[in-house]
């Protein structure tokens, strides 16, 4: 309520004060000058904006303890543009809504507005460990022993013993020398290319790489090449061009492409890298922990373990699903990232409970490959039954199973129909996927049973017949 100092840049201001003061103050203040005033209660202030020096008059009304700022002319123009874009999104049928879960992440979840649990077939919880009792208990214990958070970046006072232990487990799981933790894999991807590559270097990126890879590459000053999706002839052509123009070359690819469920031809990529003296970077977010015979990812799937130079991945999907990402590779690389990677240097450390949960998940994976094998078995069964029913399933033999529908509005309506059948899936459309390639993305988890998969396929058939997708 009470003001004891006023700062108004370069403009006279007229204040209407409370009745108790019985006076009107007029103050002419120079830039960044603060004038001491006797205490008074404000009814309103009228002043020219300090930010937009020739802008419209800005009025602030003070009521109780809350100030409400009227819309400026600049914001009004922006708001009109935003509303126009939102209207276009709604008209195209691509407006995204958020269903609210009222339960833990699991095979069965409770959705706000529904009176019964529904099968969850759209989570990245590939191993079903997000709500595993041992994982939850590890988080609770860390909360007691190491606290809720560290209020610091790693190099100041934000590194605990459990952070170093988790990095060592990650390196051991991938059979690498070292690893470095980030707040997310988006940060890990944002923080590596700028450190590793200079204007003398070249980076070659698959055209369908994840947005975080694309954004990370934009931040670096290297020469940039984009090769056609999984097209090794195009990649080789661009490598030939880059050889004479660059000091070092880096091929960047997703291991598994999240919207299509297809796998990068990693053996061929590594062969080309050897031929043209290039490094290989792979984002394994949709592979770590569950793809390959023991869950070691795309390298293991192709039987080429150790040939990839840099692996980035996430703790926010199969590895407990809480948060976090990492880079793993040679020790010199990790050491340089600790010195120069901006997302690492300027982001708070991962909270201790998150670290402990991920560490427990890695203990489970290092002990047995059973969960990864279970996911593979369920995936094979789902794909076989769906294709037999007449659906078009994109991708390779991977737990991401896109059910192709084409039309954006159909995909949204189809997802609603599935929810009515007790199955929670999401329709994906432009701009997440290309126009005309809308789909329902199904994701299989080790938390599902074979009965869950059969129930899901039966629901797809029921809804598919309703919309004329299958006979």
From TrEMBL:
Gene3D superfamilies to which the protein is assigned, alphabetical: Aspartate Aminotransferase, domain 1, Type I PLP-dependent aspartate aminotransferase-like (Major domain)
Keywords for the protein's UniProt record, in alphabetical order: Acyltransferase, Pyridoxal phosphate, Transferase
GO terms for MF: glycine C-acetyltransferase activity; pyridoxal phosphate binding
Superkingdom in the source lineage: Eukaryota
CDD domains: KBL_like
Chain ranges of the Aminotransferase class I/classII large domain: 117-460
Cellular component terms per the entry's GO annotation: mitochondrion
Record-listed E.C. numbers: 2.3.1.29
UniProt-listed GO biological process terms: L-threonine catabolic process
Cofactor(s) this protein requires: pyridoxal 5'-phosphate
UniProt family annotation: Belongs to the class-II pyridoxal-phosphate-dependent aminotransferase family.
Protein name stated in the entry: 2-amino-3-ketobutyrate coenzyme A ligase, mitochondrial
Source organism (scientific name): Rhipicephalus microplus
């Amino acid at each position: 309520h009470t003001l004891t100092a006023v700062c108004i840049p370069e403009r006279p201001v007229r204040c209407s004060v409370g009745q108790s003061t019985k006076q009107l103050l007029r103050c002419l203040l120079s830039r960044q000058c603060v004038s001491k005033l006797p205490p008074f209660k404000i009814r309103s202030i009228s002043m020219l904006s300090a930010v937009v020096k020739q802008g419209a008059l800005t009025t602030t009304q003070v009521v109780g303890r809350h100030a409400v700022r009227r819309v400026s002319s600049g914001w009004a123009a922006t708001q009109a543009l935003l509303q126009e874009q939102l209207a276009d999104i709604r008209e195209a049928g691509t407006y995204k809504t958020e269903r609210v879960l009222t339960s833990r992440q699991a095979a069965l979840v409770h959705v706000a507005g529904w009176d019964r649990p529904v099968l969850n077939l759209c989570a990245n919880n590939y191993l079903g460990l997000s709500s595993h009792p041992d994982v939850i208990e590890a988080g609770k214990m860390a909360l007691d022993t190491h606290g809720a958070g560290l209020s610091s970046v790693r190099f100041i006072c934000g590194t605990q013993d459990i952070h170093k232990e988790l990095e060592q487990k990650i390196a051991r799981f991938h059979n690498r020398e070292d690893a470095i933790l980030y707040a997310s894999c988006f940060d890990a991807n944002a923080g590596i290319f700028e450190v590793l590559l200079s204007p003398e270097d070249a980076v070659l990126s698959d055209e369908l790489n994840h947005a975080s890879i694309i954004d990370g590459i934009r931040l670096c000053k290297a020469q940039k090449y984009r090769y056609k999706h999984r097209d090794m002839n195009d990649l080789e052509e661009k490598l030939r061009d880059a050889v004479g123009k660059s000091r070092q070359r880096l091929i960047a690819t997703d291991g598994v492409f999240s919207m299509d469920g297809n796998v990068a031809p990693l053996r061929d990529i590594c062969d080309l890298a050897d031929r043209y003296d290039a490094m290989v970077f792979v984002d394994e977010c949709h592979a770590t922990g569950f793809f390959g015979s023991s869950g070691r990812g795309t390298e293991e799937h192709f039987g080429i373990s150790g040939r990839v130079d840099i692996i980035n991945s996430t703790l926010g999907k199969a590895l407990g699903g809480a948060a976090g990402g990492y880079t793993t590779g040679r020790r010199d690389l990790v050491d340089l990232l600790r010195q120069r990677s901006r997302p690492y240097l300027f982001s708070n450390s991962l909270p201790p409970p998150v670290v402990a949960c991920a560490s427990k998940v890695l203990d489970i994976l290092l002990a047995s490959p059973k969960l990864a094998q279970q996911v593979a078995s369920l995936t094979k069964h789902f794909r076989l039954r769906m294709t037999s029913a007449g659906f078009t399933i994109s991708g390779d033999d991977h737990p991401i199973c896109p059910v192709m529908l084409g039309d954006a509005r159909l995909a949204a309506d189809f997802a609603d129909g599935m929810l009515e059948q007790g199955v929670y899936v999401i329709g994906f459309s432009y701009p997440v996927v290309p126009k005309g390639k809308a789909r329902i993305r199904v994701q299989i988890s080790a938390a599902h049973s074979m009965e869950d998969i059969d129930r899901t396929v039966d629901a797809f058939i029921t809804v598919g017949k309703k919309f004329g997708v299958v006979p």
